[in-house]
Write a structure and sequence with these properties.
Length: 180
């Protein structure tokens, strides 16, 4: 759409957004104008913000388009927890939790180690509270333990998950590591 536009054209789109902040297409065009391959982190963050605004404008009437824009915002800036929170709400409301799991897994691969723990926590919560998926819960808690091996509460949580899942071999190995 707006990729490769001149500065004047980008400014015109910015003015259109300012004049009519409720216009979905203007936000998408501005995001396109800001999202260029050589974009600075600041421009990518601005483009992500425009995608988030566009998603907010259409979330009630077109949740699929809102999900597309939120996914795009996360592609531009994987650290945007506000976009991830909104995407989670939309996908869960649409009974699309498995898609959310996939998107969370994608995000985990895109962010640095420091941000992965929060994503694994979301996966564990989804597995335990929404999907009733013990394997997903165990996988997420194991990953959390690998990120924070010194966390005794987390190891206790993993032991409880292993016990609930009937993973006696893994539970025994965990207990042995605790002892020795």
């Amino acid at each position: 759409r707006a990729k490769g536009l001149s500065k004047a054209a980008k400014k015109a789109i910015e003015l259109a957004v300012e004049a009519n902040p409720q216009d979905f297409e203007s936000h998408v065009e501005l995001a396109d104008a800001l999202d260029i391959a050589e974009a600075t982190a600041e421009r990518r963050a601005a483009a992500a913000s425009e995608c988030l605004r566009a998603a907010e404008l259409v979330s009630e009437v077109d949740p699929d388009e809102a999900a597309v824009q939120l996914g795009r915002a996360l592609d531009l800036d994987p650290t945007r927890t506000d976009a991830l929170d909104a995407l989670e709400r939309i996908l869960l409301a649409a009974d699309r939790a498995p898609e959310l799991v996939g998107r969370l897994r994608d995000r985990i691969r895109q962010v640095d180690l420091g941000e992965r723990a929060a994503l694994y926590e979301r996966l564990a919560r989804l597995g335990a509270e929404i999907l009733d998926d013990r394997a997903l819960t165990v996988e997420a808690v194991e990953a959390l333990c690998s990120l924070r091996p010194e966390d005794a509460d987390l190891r206790a949580r993993l032991a409880a998950e292993y016990a609930a899942a009937g993973k006696n071999t893994e539970l025994a190995a965990l207990k042995l590591r605790e002892i020795g």
